[in-house]
Amino acid sequence: MTRVVFLLAPRAYLLDIAGAADVFLAARSLGLPYELAYFAEEPDVPTAEGLPVRASTRVPALGRDDILVVPGGAGFTPGVAPAMRRGLDLLRVHHSAGGLVASVCAGTVALAEAGLLDGRRCTTHHDLQDDLAVRYPATTVVRDVLYVVDGRVASSAGMASGIDLALHLVATAHGPGVAGRIARSLVVYARRNGQQPVTGLLRHRNHLSDLVHRVQDLIETRFAEPLRLSSLARELGCSERTVTRHFVDAVGMTPLRYQHTLRLAHAEHLLADGSTLEEAARSAGFADSRSLRSLRKSKEPQHQ
């Protein structure tokens, strides 16, 4: 079980909390082992929108696989992480124990105040980027991206970008197909990031064919396995010709090409997070690293 614990500060933004939380909640509804929890210095947390929320004041027990998330809020400015003394200590302890820490929007300030951004790359809301760079000169602030992952420290830009970061974390752990299903359930399409492969596949979900969505669900669940068109058609109760025709019309490629695209996206996620070419190829279902290398090369832009 992976616990995702949100560290709440006074005047937290509701969207900063709910956007990322809903991604992990949707993952749990798909049977993935996620548990959500909320921690604050005081049990009643006023939000920027005026709607109070309640959180636990008991410091949670965390393991290496758990995630600490700091949503941003109106009280965060470079140099100021409001009423988060125990929260900052928890960030330091969890990270030093090998855990992942993350922030949404202005919550990046808390990571900086905890000393976790020295020598690392990060991002935050564009209104805070200049001040953040001046206040924490040992940190490299990356602009014009939705999120940045540097080792076990992740940060995202504006409020809604917490959704993109959470989708990336789920895709890295469970594959882009799972992230695609979650994005579809949240009605989020074509989320991309300038720095890393995220969920570019989501653009292939921007159609209204229920049959094709069902085919995509089947492929995404077993993309690393050998799949036959005849098996897909049999599970859907229709002909191979019908599956192929509807799939090409909606997605612009055959089911087999879509499976290869999923495999490549999953492998790119793993490579971006430090896996070797052989490890990424094996996990994504390629016969060997040469097959993955060949497919990656075929996707490179050709210069005249």
UniProtKB/TrEMBL annotation:
Keyword Protein biosynthesis (UniProt): no
Keywords recorded for this protein, A-Z: Transcription, Transcription regulation
Keyword Transcription: yes
Domain (HTH araC/xylS-type): residue spans on this chain: 213-289
Pfam family, one: HTH_18
GO molecular function, one term: DNA-binding transcription factor activity
InterPro entries on file: Class_I_gatase-like, DJ-1/PfpI, Homeodomain-like_sf, HTH_AraC, INH-QAR
PANTHER family noted in UniProt: ARAC-FAMILY TRANSCRIPTIONAL REGULATOR (PTHR43130), HTH-TYPE TRANSCRIPTIONAL REGULATOR RV1931C (PTHR43130:SF3)
Protein name (Swiss-Prot/TrEMBL): DJ-1/PfpI family protein
